[in-house]
Amino acid sequence: MKRRDFLRSSALGLAVPSSLMNADTLKTNKNNPVICSTWNFGLPANELAWKVLDNGGKAMDAAEAGARHAESDPENSSVGFGGLPDEKGNVTLDACVMDSTGNAGSVAFLQNIKHPVSVARKVMEETKHVMLVGEGARQFAVSNGFEEINLLTEQSEKDWKKWLKERREMTPHETHDTLSVLVQDKMGDLAGACTTSGWAYKMHGRVGDSPIIGAGLFVDNEIGCAAATGLGEEVIKTTGSFLVVELMRQGYDPTKACEEALNRVIKAHNG
């Protein structure tokens, strides 16, 4: 990858100050909830999350509700139902959640389940594990009442067949639109959710940063929380979200923390 293209795609991964919350700046008034999300399609997710908070819901409830909204939208080709498939035509989904206590749940390479974020929450709350993948994750979802559906819409299938003919290499900045939702509720507690269908036409079995705690999402109720979207492989190698939160612990403001995390990625590529 050329350095210019690398910078453009990697910047989407961590330099997203609007998706960061810092305890010092936001917890000065715990009666003021805050919701942040990635990308324009996060706006309706935010609206739904606000309704949950208005009705007395907690940060985790709101984050999950916002993510579920995006997962249900067939017009969103990077999340949930209607997401673009892998190279074999299979839609595989990744998601994770993390709450104010540091508890976390995650699923990866999940097929035929519309709401991976809710399965991830089930993993967090009802098992002793953090992450389930593939067929095991699907079986767990079904055993907990999740309905199996075909996630490949007509439009996504059409786009995939076009790609099969062209075999054009998809760049990360074309298919990076993971949804991350970060929430602070009126009690001052933080939570986050991250959900994606991953890199379009990826290798079968590929998993990016989104379901990896510390990479795609990290929550520290004392300091803040961070989420990532972009070139997941680079975010994983730097444990990007964890790094940003730890930099905030050291006194960096969110923007500077993102910039420093990105600089470390660039340095690793002899930038």
TrEMBL record:
Q: Tell me which SUPFAM superfamilies the record gives.
A: N-terminal nucleophile aminohydrolases (Ntn hydrolases)
Highest lineage ranks of the organism?
Answer: unclassified sequences, metagenomes, ecological metagenomes
What's the protein here called? Glycosylasparaginase
Give the GO molecular function terms. Answer: hydrolase activity, acting on carbon-nitrogen (but not peptide) bonds, in linear amides
Q: Which InterPro entries match?
A: Ntn_hydrolases_N, Peptidase_T2
CC annotations in GO = cytoplasm
Pfam families, alphabetized: Asparaginase_2 (PF01112)
